[in-house]
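Example 3.2
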Amino acid sequence: MSEGLARVCTVSDQPLIYARGLVKRFGDFTAVDGIDLSVAPGEAFGFLGPNGAGKSSTMRMIGCVSMPTSGELRILGMDPVRDGTRIRARLGVCPQLDNLDPDLSVRENLLTYARYFGVPRAEARRRADELLEFVQLADRAGSKVDPLSGGMKRRLTIARAMVNDPDLVLLDEPTTGLDPQARHLLWERLFQLKRRGTTLVLTTHYMDEAEQLCDRLVVMDGGRIVAEGSPRALIETYSTPEVVELRFGDERPADLAGKLAGVGTRIDPLPDRLLVYAADGDAATAEVHRRGLTPSSVLVRRSTLEDVFLHLTGRTLVD
């Protein structure tokens, strides 16, 4: 593995991203409402939340394509307003929508992008070949982009984001629209980048993705940060070890919630099911039956980040 992919970040202990009171407004609409955050070198940091939470607006400010309305923001120790060009030269960006050039081959997409950063031709060829091996597209190097599957295009976009050997890689909803197999393959590639010391910052509304990839994350809602920590710490703080999902056929979950008072730590009625939060899901299920209730289906599972979001905001991540 070359120095570019194997490099462990040797930047100082200063955060690569530092924000205090960061605000972004569009007219009368406040997309990002006074957030504080920092991202350390080598960290995999995530923004979790539903559409409209402010994740993408924050990422656009970090990527120096949208200037803050107010507050303090430093990227790689620099001010995006004054040093946007210098910062962008050291970033790798994987946008939410693929913007690959369909007229170029897979390999040519990387070589052309490398020229934007002034990478010498010989070095660009070496990096392109290595990155295509890394994202498992070496056998498609001469193919056009259009015939590629969605997962292949996402992997190519990530390879392109790495071609300038960036200090910081930004990934906006990296697996949206992919099938489960493609998502897991992409997770594995991102995990390998993380292990090699690449600093990753990603937005997602997939809680399992955040749990898989992020060392630390913030939960956003309505332009604000409502919680911050590691995935495990957030679950331990805001939820219970297990959750029981109860479905009752035609009966409205909200009408049955009162009959389950005291079962578990709390009860959350959703439109299609009741969630019972408990330390012991099997014991909670037994208590439901003792109370004479007969659900049409019962699922006992561990708590997830979606449960955290439901507790903090009163709605699920996909609302």
